[in-house]
Design goal:
Order of helices and strands of chain B: HHHH
CATH architecture of the largest domain in chain A: Orthogonal Bundle
Radius of gyration of chain A: 21 Å
Number of helices of chain A: 10
CATH architecture of chain B: Orthogonal Bundle
Number of strands of chain A: 0
Helix content of chain B: over 70%
Oligomer: heterodimer
Structural class of chain B: mainly alpha
Number of helices of chain B: 4
Distance between the termini of chain A: 56 Å
Order of helices and strands of chain A: HHHHHHHHHH
CATH class of chain B: Mainly Alpha
């Protein structure tokens, strides 16, 4: 068990903020260093998630501000049944949904559910596959081998990062939400279904379409880099 | 071999790839999927590309917090503490 620490109102450098119970206790005690740690650890994720829900960055920043205040309000009631991150994401999701509805005149042009794309199958890349003959459905231009570092090296380039981010932003809103929660933020599939109020099956379909598009963007970026070097 | 009748095409595999990674294929679907992977380099590469895509997404850096936002929130925190 941890040793008894004297109550310090400001910084407690010996405590491990990566242990959630320690962090939550310190927050409840009003420890500013703990709160500062929390802000740094989660600001970026909250902003990214908010941007998956609302049409503008300015609105997203407001939603994040409201979320932090909501976190402070609800902190006394946090029981640790879920992780802190999931709990904060839930607070954000509720705020963002309310806000998103208010801003919904922007969303009306969007195929909101991301599922009503069945007329447009271009995201499936049909031109990559043989249309006919004995080998119908097989690769026409097979994907090349990526080594482990290849896509991650892209992240070292500011321009490439921006292109990947844009690819995510360009997705229909619910696809954007699913891929952000699942792949960028690593949230559990069941929690994502709860946040978005969708079935597992729908979640898989949305995730599939989103990932297929993003893979294509990354492949395109890598090909660009290869030909230009 | 009788499996030829149920062979997946590469397009089929691409369509099933998320189900595969999520573990939601039926036993026989997964078997056909893996058999296809066994003889198709293009699809093995595609699966790897998909895995690396997911990994890359997980490593996207997040924005740092602007100082003025931090200051504002610390102020709120201090007044929250006092309650």
């Amino acid at each position: 068990m941890k040793e008894e620490e004297p109550q310090q109102p400001t910084s407690s450098p010996d405590l491990n903020w990566n242990d959630e119970r320690t962090l939550v206790e310190a927050l409840r005690m009003g420890d500013e260093a703990a709160f500062s740690f929390l802000l740094d650890a989660y600001y970026g994720s909250l902003l990214r998630l908010a941007m998956a829900y609302v049409p503008s960055r300015a609105v997203a920043e407001e939603v994040v501000q409201e979320t932090w205040l909501g976190v402070l309000e609800s902190l006394p009631r946090f029981e640790g049944r879920s992780s802190l991150k999931t709990w904060m994401f839930r607070i954000l999701t509720n705020r963002a949904k309310t806000r998103g509805k208010r801003e919904s005149r922007y969303e009306s042009l969007d195929s909101g559910d991301g599922l009503s794309e069945s007329d447009d199958e271009s995201w499936r890349d049909p031109e990559r596959f043989r249309p006919s003959g004995a080998l119908a459905g097989h690769w026409l231009t097979p994907p090349s081998m990526w080594d482990e570092e290849t896509p991650e090296r892209l992240l070292l380039s500011k321009e490439s990062r921006a292109i990947i981010e844009q690819a995510i932003q360009a997705l229909p809103s619910v696809q954007r939400q699913v891929i952000t929660l699942r792949d960028v933020e690593g949230i559990d599939s069941k929690d994502v279904c709860n946040f978005l109020d969708i079935s597992e099956t729908n979640q898989r379909v949305l995730l599939h379409r989103a990932r297929t598009r993003v893979r294509k963007t990354i492949e395109h970026q890598l090909n660009e880099k290869r030909t230009s070097s | 071999m009788h499996m030829m009748a149920g062979n997946l095409s590469c397009q089929d595999l691409a369509d099933l790839i998320t189900d595969y990674l999520e573990g939601s294929l039926t036993f026989s679907e997964r078997l056909r999927f893996q058999i296809h992977l066994g003889f198709c380099t293009g699809c093995r590469n595609y699966l790897n590309q998909m895995k690396y895509t997911i990994r890359t997404l997980g490593k996207l850096p997040s924005e740092p917090m602007p100082e003025d936002v931090r200051d504002e929130l610390l102020k709120r925190f201090r007044s929250w503490k006092k309650r």
